[in-house]
Amino acid sequence: MTGVPPLVLVHGLWDTPRLFDPLSRALAGERDRLLVPFLPHSFGARRMIPLAEELGRAIDTAYGPEQMVDLLGFSMGGVIGRCWIQLLGGHHRTRRFISVASPQQGTLLAQVCPSWLLGGIAELKMGSPLIQRLNEDVRSLASVECLSLFTPIDQVVVPGWRGVLPVGKSRSLPATLHQFVLRDPRCLAVLRRELLRP
Q1: Where would I find the H helices in 36-160?
Q2: Domain that holds residue 84
Q3: Considering the domain boundaries, does residue 117 fall inside one?
Q4: E strand residue ranges, 28-173
Q5: CA distance 169 to 172
Q6: How far apart are CA 123 and CA 160, in angstroms?
Q7: Which of 44, 55, 85, 133 could be a cystine partner for 118, CB 3.0 to 4.6 Å?
């Protein structure tokens, strides 16, 4: 796709870059400038901003400090990507941000996680200081085309509609469980259409 920026894919908790293998195959080389960094989460102990800093370094190393990018984040990866965009200046170089099954408004599942043990997961609690900080000032998202994709029966982002950014468009994916979103052919078809859109 001529003139389209590189695509950065950010995995979630307990995942590796291999999570995106089915999506890469679905794209069939039509978005061949892919960056899929490995961001180890230490079983949910690492917090979002240090992970976002690591993401930013990976993008700088791959493309330099000014190249525009598109960014897709799955699950916790969507919050990491959002932290980079909103809090670390990534909005200056992000054309499009696609959040997929990501707890952008927190999730009930994280409510029982203690901060001292699972600091990263605890930041995904509904009303956590990080979620509040991200939602208090969304002006840096104004220059980014944002899309939230969620599945209504998600058992990780609970309830599923909490996987929606406070700005931009949103749409429901075909009903499937969280761990199947990036393997379900119906969901992959939706992602392919969005990622190949000019």
Answers
A1: 48-63, 76-87, 119-122, 129-136
A2: 7-192
A3: yes
A4: 34-35, 69-74, 94-100, 145-150, 169-172
A5: 11
A6: 18
A7: 44
